[in-house]
Predict the structure.
Amino acid sequence: MSSSLAVSTNLNLQAHPVDEVGIRERVARLATRSIKKASKVEGLKLALSMVDLTTLEGADTPGKVRQLCTKAIHLHSGRKDLPMVAAVCVYPTMVRIAREALQGTPIQVAAVATAFPSGMNPLAVKLEDTRYAVAEGAHEIDMVISRGDFLRGDYGRVANEIEQVKEACGKAHLKVILETGELGTLDRVRLASDIAMQSGADFIKTSTGKIQPAATPEVVLVMLQAISDFYRKTGKRIGMKPAGGIANAKAALNLLIMVREVLGPAWLTPSLFRIGASKLPNDMLMQLEKERTGVYQGLDYFSND
């Protein structure tokens, strides 16, 4: 372990080796759980309420962001019983547009920051990026850790960076993205989760959505276990956000099963669990219409924007 741990006075890491065989077996068992019709409908509605509806493309325009916000508010014009999503996630330059479009709704505006998705800028630039997003009106900041620093064992530098970004967030909540597809092993995923939580993360998040593999069930389970251990030790509830490659209703329901199994029903709320997605809501809407009418609608029946 690097001597740079001294950079962060709050960092107190302990080894938590991951039983990869046990993780795979538990994931397989949880995947066999079935949900009956009434519970499935409620589960899909709950999952919809937890979505961070996301657009993070270089081609994003104010018009595209406004259209996404309209979809966030009105997922299905014919279904008044459906919840709004939890948040819309955009680049910092689009925060003001999203904030204005969502005014008067409970939907939060999340902004990626800290040189998303690479995290390769100097700390001063990352902090300015964060302050800018908050000043524009972001309620939540999704930051990326410096994977290069982490992979060379400079854990103190990673922790210090998270602490400073947390301070720059002010009242905004901080989600710390581990980019698990670049960490290589489940042991590293667990270690990065522990560092993020000790350093002030309000949520830990799997991925940017730009790297594969992203939110695999095994990674999600390891991060949920880390949150559980942290809660038992500190009494503090940390949120979780899987993101990247979650595109169908079955995967979303499986995530809810995992959360309930590992963390309990207290975490089944948008304040503690989010799903980062762009295409997922359409598949969940298709499944909800099937449960209501008995007939599948095509995906093109719903808005793609």
